[in-house]
Amino acid sequence: MSFESLGLRAELLRAVSEKGYSDPTPIQLQAIPPVLEGRDIMGGAQTGTGKTAGFTLPLLQRLMASEKAGKGRRAIRALVITPTRELAAQVNESVVDYGKHLPLKSTVVFGGVSINPQKQKLIRGVDILVATPGRLLDHVGQNSVNLSKVDILVLDEADRMLDMGFIRDIRKVLALLPKQKQTLLFSATFSDDIKRLAKDLLRSPVLIEVARHSAAAESVTQVVHPVDKNRKRELLSFLIGSNNWQQVLVFNRTKHGANRLTEQLGKDGINAAAIHGNKSQGARTRALADFKAGNIRVLVATDIAARGLDISQLPHVVNFELPNIAEDYVHRIGRTGRAGNEGEAMSLVCVDELKLLRDIEQLLKCDIPRVPIDGFDVDPSIKAEPINKGRGRQQQAARKPAGKKSSSARNRRRPSGNRSNRSSQGAR
Predict the structure, then answer these.
(1) pTM
(2) Are residues 83 and 184 in the same domain?
(3) CB 150 within 8 A of CB 127
(4) Is-contact 423 284, C-beta < 8 A?
(5) Which pLDDT belongs to residue 416?
(6) Number of separate domains in the chain
(7) 30 lies in the same domain as 160
(8) How far apart are CA 151 and CA 77, in angstroms?
(9) Domain of residue 154, CATH code
(10) Is 417 left (phi over 0), alpha (psi -120 to 50) or beta?
(11) Are strands 106-109 and 343-349 parallel, antiparallel or unpaired?
C-alpha cells in the first residue's frame, strides 16, 4: 500500500514525498486509518518503526479538518508529551516537516534551557505543543499555557515516562485536559502500570502492536567480542581505527564512565563527545549536531540520554558496557538498522557481564555469536566482579535513608522555570 491509499491530504503527501518516503511502515499502515477516524490508540512499537509519523500525519489532518482550523486566536488543540528533551525536539521536527504546507503552528518546550523564549511563543499562540512533563507544568504554573481546548493528546514512550518517575506529573497534566478528547498512547512495553494508565485514559482503543519489545530488528547484525575489562578501551579504538569507522554510537552504563571513555578516545586520536544527563542541553545539542555532520566520529551515550536519538543510516552501535536491564539492549541496538537500513551492533563483553549477556539472549530467544579478536584473548584467571544492578530511579530512591529525598525528587520540586527534565525514539 502507498501513503495515497491511506486518505491523507495532498499537502501531507507532498511533505512525505519531499522527505523521500514512498511506502508506509507497518505501524503507519495500522495507526493512520483509526487515528483519522478519531479512535483512541494503544500502540506498541519498537524504535525505528516510523511510529512518530504514524501519529503526526493523521494528527495534522485531524486538526485541519476541525472547524476551529484557522479561526480566531490559536489555541493548543494537540498536545504531545514525551519523556525527554531529545525526543520532544525530534517529534516537533517531524510536526514541522510534515506540516510545512499547512497553516498550522507548533512549538516544543523542555527543561534545561531558558523558559522565557518558550513563553513568548506560547503567548502568541500555537496549534500543536510538544512538551516534556516537568517543563509543561512549569508553564502551567506561569499561566503561559491553556490546555482546556486540547482535542488530541499523545503520550509517547509512556513506559519510559513511568520508569523515570513522571506518573504524578502526567496525572497533574491530565487533570487540566478536557474529558472529551482523542488519546493516542504509545509504549514499547505493556506493563501492568501502562495497562492501568490506559484503562483510565482510553475509550475502546484500537490495539496496535507491531513488534514485541523483546525483538531485535532483523536488519541489525549482532556480535559479541569477548575481552578483559581493562582492555575494552584498547579494543574499541582498535575496531574504530582498523575498520575506519566514521560514525559510531557507543553505550556506557554511567555518566562518569562516558566522560572517561571520551577522554581516553581523544588521547587515542579519535574525536569523541559524551552525551548524558549532566550535560547542558546546549552541549548535548552541539554534540549530536557535530556527530550527525561528521565532525566527531564517536558519540558516547548513556541509556537515558540516547532515548530519542534519530540518526539516519547510523552504521555502528557498540555496547562498551552491557546494560543492567535486558530490554535496554534492544533499545540501544535499535539506533542502527532503522527504516530498512542495515546496521551492526557489537558488544564488548568481559567476565563480569556474562550474566547480563545471558539475560539478553534469554530475552531475544537466541544466542549472539561470539567472535574473539586476535590479540585480545581473554585471561581465564580473571574472576568476575559484581556489577551494580540498580534498575531505576525508584529503586535507587527506595534505598536512600528515610527523610532524604532523591535527586530526581528534588529536581521535580525546583522553582518554576529552573526545572531540568530527565534526558532522552526517533521520529521518522
Answers:
(1) 0.63
(2) yes
(3) no
(4) yes
(5) 37
(6) 2
(7) yes
(8) 5
(9) 3.40.50.300
(10) left
(11) unpaired
